[in-house]
Amino acid sequence: MAKGSIMNAGQALPTNMPKNGVPAASPSRRGATSWRGRGWVLKAPVALLGLLLAILVVPPLIMLVQTSLTDYANPDAGLSFINYRQLIADPLLYISIANSVIFAACATVLSLVLGATVAWVVERTNAPFKPLAYVTTVVSLGTPAILYVSAWTFLLGKAGPVNALWRSITGGFQPLVNIYSIPGMVLVEGLLWVPLVFLLCGATFKRQNADLEEAARMAGASVFDTVRRVSMPLAKPALLGLAIFIFIRNLEAFDVPVLLGTPGGVKLLTSDVYLAMTQVPPDLGHSSAFAVLMVLFVSILLVFYGRVSRSADRYASVTGKGFRPRPFNLGRYRWLGGLVIWFNFLLVLIIPMTAILWNSLTPFIRPFSMAGLKTMTLKHYLVALTDSYYLHMAWNTVLISGIAATAVIAITALAAWFSVRRWPGASLLDQLASLPIVLPGIVLGVAMIQIALRTPFGLYGSLSLIGIAFVVRYMPYGMRYAQPGVMQIHRELEEAAGISGATQPAIFRRVVLPLLSPALIAGWLFIFLLAAKELSIAVLLAGANSKTIAVAMFDQWTNGQAGEVAALGIIWTVIMSCLAALMTRLTRKDNNSEGAL
């Protein structure tokens, strides 16, 4: 069924109602008067879910603002703007802002150029070696960011193979790449986001109408001109929206700024917040004021993101029966498309993974050499597989990530159903569930610390606190999976169940959930993978016995245990990559069946 028929379906309700008095389906605006006498039946679940969402997402924002307005040098003075005055008067703030914007913008450009190019080659052309792009994406989704940072630190460090080769060629002493500078940080951060850009751009390019590209080629346009004047302009709103999203995520990045920027003396907003919270004693007011400024900055960017998304209809090229998703024939340039895929495969996956594997097999960090092959050992793997510390961290990660993903999917499945079917007051659910997207991970961690310190439940330093933070953090991601899934389910199926006497809970359980399950499972896996890699929240909230794998890797890396970090990372990446492969398969299957219901 075409998308247009899905959206037009169900705008009016059937006049017959089941005997139990419960409406057959959630009303549209035109049909609202038919059930007004029994509105409480529909309002109660929405109100309860709205209350739950408000309890989860509102307190962190309130606590953040309240703490930023507290003068900890004079707590009895009431609300004060002293933290903001001190922050604005500090010239280092503007250095951090400038560095953050430059870092995020350059990393975004790198991610988009490489990721979108690979996506177009894979989805729109007949280039060879396409499976390599999906292998790269799957493994990258399952790899903790700290592993990539450690790999590129080894490769591009002052004593790394790249700079060593450069010095041997030039005979000089200056390194080719300074990994602890903004250009080095941009390279690492940009490559981190290439797989996700490929995944999201791939869905856009896959749905482009090939007739327009073929018409351009028949008119004499070259392959390059066709891409520049037809393919990319059609994807302009999707690419612009994705650029804003990636820019926001780069702006709130934690791993690269802390692990590379801090040793190199490069100040960024996220590293400033982290250092303010981890100093002794922690500067709560300063870090909270910093965090509020980040929230305001991100909120402005999200406004632009919303405007871009709303204008996407003007660029639609899929118009029903005439749509045929055919690959673009590159002709004699097929080898160039294959070369792009291989370049991405080597740069994003093989080179860093080779470095991680090398470090995991050598007794200590040493450059690539034939002599190093003789000293290879599996002792780091034995430690990672048998040490109770690592096993405990792995169990913590699986447990808390699984619980958080389950809670998010359960809440957002209901919220999406209420919102798409226009239950009374359900528009507020979408807004509440999407609100945490303005909170960067490090900012949410600061807010949750304030909440934990004021509650008598022993939350501070517990797995429960991390789990609650994960639920809040990934609520918007759950909605992005659940809402399109509900939109693909024709309202007539729910109306038929209602006419047969099914109650609303029965309709949701026996009709909606089975049809929605592919999207929900893919969303669960995606959130699980993100939570299992999350460092910025966990590193602030974790206690001695509530650390996750990402925090354990962070601690061991800063303590100089790079071999154990590499071995643990390889094992963890293999496990997570299997889940990422399942998620990718379910997502592609769900996208292929879009509009079939």
TrEMBL record:
PROSITE patterns to which the protein is assigned, alphabetical: ABC_TM1
Gene3D superfamilies given in the database record: MetI-like
PANTHER family attached to this UniProt entry: INNER MEMBRANE ABC TRANSPORTER PERMEASE PROTEIN YDCV
Keyword Membrane in annotation: yes
SUPFAM superfamilies linked to this entry: MetI-like
Transmembrane residue ranges: 40-62, 93-122, 134-157, 177-201, 238-260, 284-305, 333-358, 398-420, 432-451, 457-475, 511-532, 565-583
Taxonomic path: Bacteria, Pseudomonadati, Pseudomonadota, Alphaproteobacteria, Hyphomicrobiales
Native species: Neorhizobium alkalisoli
CDD domains the record matches: TM_PBP2 (cd06261)
GO cellular component: plasma membrane
Protein name, UniProt field: Iron(III) transport system permease protein
Residues of the ABC transmembrane type-1 domain: 97-305, 394-583
Chain spans, region Disordered: 1-33
